[in-house]
Amino acid sequence: MSGTTVRERFLARRSFIELDARERARALLDPGTFRELAGPFDRLKSPWLPLQGVVAQADDGVVIARGSIDGESAVVASIEGAYQGGSVGEVSGAKLAGALELALRDFELGRPVRPLLLLETGGVRLQEANLGLAAIAEVHAAIVALRRHVPVVAVVAGMVGCFGGMSLAAALCSRLIVTRQARLGMNGPEVIEQEAGLAELDAGDRALIWSLMGGEQRQATGFADVLAEDDAEAIGAEVRRAFAAAAPTPRSERVEALIARLAGIDGERPPEPAALRALWGETRQ
Amino acid sequence: MEHLTFTYPAREAVARRVHIGVAGSGDLEVLLEPSADADAHVAVTTSVDGFGTVWKHVLDRFFTRFDGAAAIEINDCGATPGVVLLRLEQAVEALRA
Predict the structure, then answer these.
(1) Which residues sit opposite B71 in a β-bridge?
(2) Of A123, A259, B54, B56, which is most buried, counting CB atoms within 10 Å of its CB?
(3) Residues of B whose CB is below 8 A from A82
(4) Is the complex ipTM higher than 0.90?
(5) pTM of the entire predicted model
(6) What's the count of helices (H) and strands (E) in chain B, helices before strands?
(7) Residue A151 in contact with residue A175, Cβ under 8 Å?
(8) How far apart are the first and last CA of chain A?
(9) What angle do CA A5, A240, A21 make, to 5 degrees?
């Protein structure tokens, strides 16, 4: 590979990570088909954040858009990581769950819809704790119901990543696309450091964090399906490919394989990230 | 958190609505739409208290170059005056695109 080729490829790339939630949804829908539902001018804001001294955003940090993907009707739910860490509150959670539930209703009426989730989220919004958690449970239920009809596709691009209850949503999807910059995990590194101490995990050690929960490691150990470049075109191609393929057996239904994985681990001597790839890479599918 | 409102005289009508930005750290969200009357109205909600005079200076400067009868809602999360002005100009650019 010559230097020129690398540079030309880099310059030709359109960073997906640098796009905001709305631009991401627009980039993955067929050109000219983006149509936003419950948008910022509908002003479905969090009623809870201002009571706690936090400025509310007009779309509560979630963009819901209809359009088409490869000519087929689609709905995209895109979380804005820059607003409150992409956290899921009552309103943003209702938008996510509502979009998926309406897609399910469309299927039941014989109208296929391709559901796509763009996840950039720290999980539940702590200021709206129980309401956010309830909404996340609805999102989980809707993904499980929908994936019987159609692949439910999710993208975690970074740089927030996908954590907490929403990492479970990512795990429930039929296809999960990640970039190297993405992170995926139940607890974020700062939470682990705070709760278990610096000796357990140094949240400031970026190389360590990405070696544990980064997109490349997650794909190599079978928690994500596709590792894509940070390029809107490349991610778009992977999204179209995921919808065109037959829906695979969902990861969360491969229970025997997952139990067997755990049985091969000695909790007293947890394997290094590279060893885990060797250990679990085999059972990826 | 503080809520501020401003009114400026306007000359031309605003034809459509525009949404720019995110209320993320150091940034702000601008919702610009046609005003209900002949004036321009700005409603600011900001996470930082005590900067009413600075907001007035920034908006005074912005309205020397923009005379649309717009209702502008700003949801601010600690943006600097320069960022505020850039976001407002970005909204006007999108309005005229």
Answers:
(1) B33, B41
(2) A123
(3) 22, 24-25, 27
(4) yes
(5) 0.94
(6) 2, 6
(7) yes
(8) 31
(9) 85
